[in-house]
Amino acid sequence: MQKVVTGDKLKKTLLSQNYSSLSSFLSLAFILFVTVFYFTDLRYISYVQNIDHNTPTNHTIISLIPEKTRSEKLPFAIGEGNGGCDIFTGEWTRDYTRPIYEEWECPFLEPQLTCIEHGRPEKDYRYWRWQPRGCSLPRFNATLMLETLRGKKMLFVGDSLNRGQFTSLVCLLQGNIPEKDKSMEAVPSGVVFTAKDYNATIEFYWAPFLLESNADDPYKHRVTDRIVRNGSIDTHGENWRGADIIVFNSYIWWISGLRILRGSFEDEVKDLVEIPMEDSYRIAVGSLIKWINKNVDPQKTRVFFTSMSPTHQGSYKWGGASKGNCYNETSMIKGGEFFGAERSLMQVISEELMNTGKAEVPITFLNITQLSSARKDAHTSIYKKQWGPLTDKQLADPMSYADCIHWCLPGLQDIWNELFFSKLFYP
Ligand SMILES: *[C@@H]1O[C@H](CO)[C@@H](O)[C@H](O)[C@H]1NC(C)=O
Ligand SMILES: *[C@@H]1O[C@H](CO)[C@@H](O)[C@H](O)[C@H]1NC(C)=O
Ligand SMILES: *[C@@H]1O[C@H](CO)[C@@H](O)[C@H](O)[C@H]1NC(C)=O
Ligand SMILES: *[C@@H]1O[C@H](CO)[C@@H](O)[C@H](O)[C@H]1NC(C)=O
Ligand SMILES: *[C@@H]1O[C@H](CO)[C@@H](O)[C@H](O)[C@H]1NC(C)=O
Ligand SMILES: *[C@@H]1O[C@H](CO)[C@@H](O)[C@H](O)[C@H]1NC(C)=O
């Protein structure tokens, strides 16, 4: 699931081969050539290879490079993956040892996520684990994760769904940290969790489009006329540099009308265009990849991208009642076919992230869309604090007021973090 050709790794791989018989001039020339050209055109490598008459001319060397680098250790990896087993394909299995923590045990849960506290009558949705087909997930180990984060910074960048995953991770870890050594703080760009004894932070950075937009205030971003500025990845990107582990997401904000701004928000006459959702999403994913290529050191940093979080706003879509939504749903969607997100955007991700060779730094894809699509039972629905507590009138009208986008915690997003844990340590 990862793209693996990286500049430094490529260089290292090539240099580790036996060039002892080269003259020092030739090897210096070789290093310079490779250093200068590996980002621009891989063919130069074969060219340089060919002028080295001590090694046989063999054009297949190019296709061999990814094979070689693939076995190189990624930062934070402590073991091998399951021999190509796709951990995102599998099935939901009953597990009454869940949830891993209780609502009341995690002081950092926002009232937007605590469903039991807000009156959810049944708890079935909490007793599931994910069973990949053909392999098993490692058990989530908070000690290991915290030790790994010692002196480090983990950063979640994206929208409220990513904030949910961030919060879930904090809850999975915080039980291992004494009260006086942990804190959560709101900052202008989002929130920061600090584990003082570990000198570690886990941060959430609000950037729902990744690019600069008029919805960038983490606390007041409900704008109807959304505008996203083309070519602006550095606006937020500047603040992401230096993180050791970064988890990106971006999806839900792209699917309803928005316009792309060319130029700047300061321009008196704004040059705005409306383009298809797929095209605008491609701008964002493409810009992100360029930012990663330029700013991330693959020897030190791991990058993750979480796929679209599905929604359950119309039950007719999965063969339910004509006017229902996720409200009052207590079981999963059977069959595994329902896909609660825009397939065309998954296609964009596949093309940009996976197949094109654009990503020069490994980006680990957390493909949670399909497995979460079954979980119409796992949303916060009406059991949450919205912007204020729901009024009686709103509670009586779940068709309009149920939240079928976000997820109860503990719940589904803990599983996303188990998958994240698995990919971080056993890629
Ligand atoms: C090139 O390398 C590949 C892989 O090592 C090998 O199978 C092939 O025989 C080589 N071709 C030549 C012409 O040396
Ligand atoms: C969790 O990780 C720690 C640190 O690596 C290790 O000592 C411990 O044995 C692990 N626990 C389990 C249950 O695997
Ligand atoms: C804490 O971690 C930061 C990196 O996040 C590092 O620069 C700093 O030196 C560390 N401080 C101590 C006391 O270890
Ligand atoms: C966005 O910027 C890129 C790079 O400058 C450009 O190629 C593209 O045409 C722009 N897209 C729009 C919709 O303006
Ligand atoms: C909720 O679901 C139950 C069982 O599926 C059903 O009996 C009940 O009428 C539903 N309640 C509402 C308000 O739709
Ligand atoms: C993610 O998984 C879905 C189905 O589970 C699959 O159709 C899609 O191609 C996967 N996406 C990528 C980028 O691998």
From TrEMBL:
Primary location recorded for the protein, binned into one broad class: membrane
Keywords on record: Membrane, Signal-anchor, Transmembrane, Transmembrane helix
InterPro entries: TBL, TBL_C, TBL_N
MF (Gene Ontology): O-acetyltransferase activity
Trichome birefringence-like N-terminal domain span: 84-136
One annotated Gene Ontology cellular component of this protein: Golgi apparatus
Domain of life of the organism encoding this protein: Eukaryota
Domain Trichome birefringence-like C-terminal positions: 137-421
Topology relative to the membrane: Single-pass membrane protein
Transmembrane segments: 21-40
Places the protein is found: Membrane
Record family assignment: Belongs to the PC-esterase family. TBL subfamily.
Name of the protein described by the UniProt record: Uncharacterized protein
